[in-house]
From TrEMBL:
GO terms for molecular function: signaling receptor binding. PANTHER family: BUTYROPHILIN (PTHR24100), ICOS LIGAND (PTHR24100:SF151). One of its GO terms (cellular component) is external side of plasma membrane. It comes from the Eukaryota. It is found in: Membrane. This is Ig-like domain-containing protein. It comes from Astatotilapia calliptera (Eastern happy). Residues 25-129, 140-225, 247-320 form the Ig-like domain. Its main location: membrane. Residues 1-23 form the signal peptide. The chain crosses the membrane at residues 332-358.
């Protein structure tokens, strides 16, 4: 599916292309494509005079009139063709009978951008000029650098864009937010732009970073819901199931933003193998449940750790699994208390233990 801005862009491109199909000698035509797609550079006679037996010659003006494609009465030459275009350019043989000497450049690259000339040699030479703009429109990426109770420092990065985009921070209603001076660097034609802003708590905590490239009619954005008191609360841990010599543990992190990484660790801090985390989110906040199955260790203490790197926040909870639970079911005669922080965990674990025993004893 295309997003709205992409559709808009396609429409604009189609308009530009349809306008250009009527190119007249001497007129200037602009063709806009996105990097990686194919570009048709139009060059045709309005008289529809046959060009099969004629000569036409495509060149790129900058930097030094490179040979792009050359056709001479049935043959096309690759001899003089510039290295950069090798294997990527072809013409439309069937169109020649209606005076159409257009070419197609496959798999366009940003450096293909520039002015091209198409010289058609009939009774006299006719010259066409076409400007090709190959845009690279990467999506901006938002990072949360720091977040407090009511203030967040946000970074928006656009990397490898061409032409140079205008980058803006906007709030949920589309108003432009004050931001710092953008940091702009470029490698060849491609621009990297970083834009920092500090936002405060508002009722709508949805922020957008919008990159606009007017020359190619392209708009792309990233958005982020900032949950101001979103640092993950202590995980909630408990015993989920008891089978012979193994105990299944559950860890739940609720309402965290940004999305935390959740891990089970043993008392030495080693990460324990766990099941695929179950992740759900609403309004930019995440609920994550992580299950693991443990066997007896010398401490029987296990930690669930939630890490939010973007906001340098780590929180954890531990659970002590009583040694008896690792015995085969026959050995579990009495309900022992399960240490975990929080009364409900203990009750929950005891109940489970109880039901496990009823089931298998
Ligand atoms: C010339 O041929 C190309 C490729 O088939 C086509 O896209 C274009 O519309 C043609 N131009 C005209 C004026 O017919
Ligand atoms: C192409 O030619 C036009 C008109 O001369 C000029 O304005 C434009 O900057 C040129 N484009 C490039 C990429 O050199
Ligand atoms: C721009 O970003 C790209 C991709 O991360 C990186 O490789 C390149 O070095 C950056 N260029 C500049 C000039 O910072
Ligand atoms: C949030 O909304 C409430 C009620 O609509 C309003 O009274 C309050 O001023 C708003 N706060 C901000 C920071 O916009
Ligand atoms: C506990 O584990 C046993 C054996 O793997 C399984 O049959 C049972 O359904 C599990 N009970 C719960 C509540 O997950």
């Amino acid at each position: 599916m295309l997003s709205a801005p992409e559709c808009l862009w396609l429409c604009l491109a189609a308009l530009i292309l349809s306008a250009s199909a009527e190119g007249e000698p001497g007129s200037r035509i602009k063709v806009v494509v996105l990097e990686g797609s194919d570009a048709v550079l139009p060059c045709s006679l309005s008289t529809k005079e046959k060009t099969e037996q004629k000569l036409f010659n495509w060149k790129k003006v900058d930097p030094n009139k490179q040979e792009v494609f050359r056709y001479d009465g049935g043959n096309h030459y690759n001899d003089g063709q510039d290295e950069h275009f090798r294997g990527r350019v072809s013409h439309f043989p069937l169109e020649l009978q209606s005076g159409n000497a257009s070419i197609i450049i496959k798999n366009t690259l940003v450096p293909d951008s520039g002015n091209y000339t198409c010289d058609l040699f009939l009774q006299k030479k006719q010259a066409f000029s076409i400007e090709l703009v190959v845009g690279a429109a990467p999506k901006p990426l938002i990072h949360v650098l720091k977040i407090t109770e009511d203030e967040a420092r946000l970074k928006c990065e656009v990397r490898g864009a061409f032409p140079k985009p205008k980058v803006e921070w906007r709030d949920g209603d589309g108003n432009i937010l004050p931001a710092e001076e953008p940091q702009v660097s470029h490698t060849g034609e491609r621009y990297n732009i970083t834009l920092l802003t500090t936002v405060t708590r508002t009722n709508s905590s949805l922020f957008h970073c919008v990159a606009t490239q007017e020359e190619i009619g392209h708009v792309t954005e990233d958005k982020l819901y900032v949950a101001f008191s979103g640092a993950a609360l202590k995980p909630f841990v408990g015993i989920l199931n008891i089978t012979e010599y193994r105990v299944q543990l559950r860890c739940e992190v609720r309402g965290a933003s940004p999305k935390p990484r959740v891990e089970w660790r043993d008392s030495h801090g080693n990460i324990l193998p766990a099941e695929q985390p179950q992740v759900s989110h609403r309004d930019g906040r995440y609920d994550i449940t992580l299950l693991t199955t443990v066997t007896r260790t010398n401490t029987n203490i296990f930690h669930c750790v939630a890490t939010q790197e973007e906001i340098s926040h780590v929180t954890e909870e531990e659970i002590h699994v009583p040694d008896q639970l690792f015995e085969s079911c026959d050995g579990v005669g009495v309900i022992v208390s399960v240490f975990a922080s929080g009364f409900s965990v203990t009750v929950f674990a005891s109940l489970l233990l109880f039901s496990a025993c009823i089931k298998c004893c």
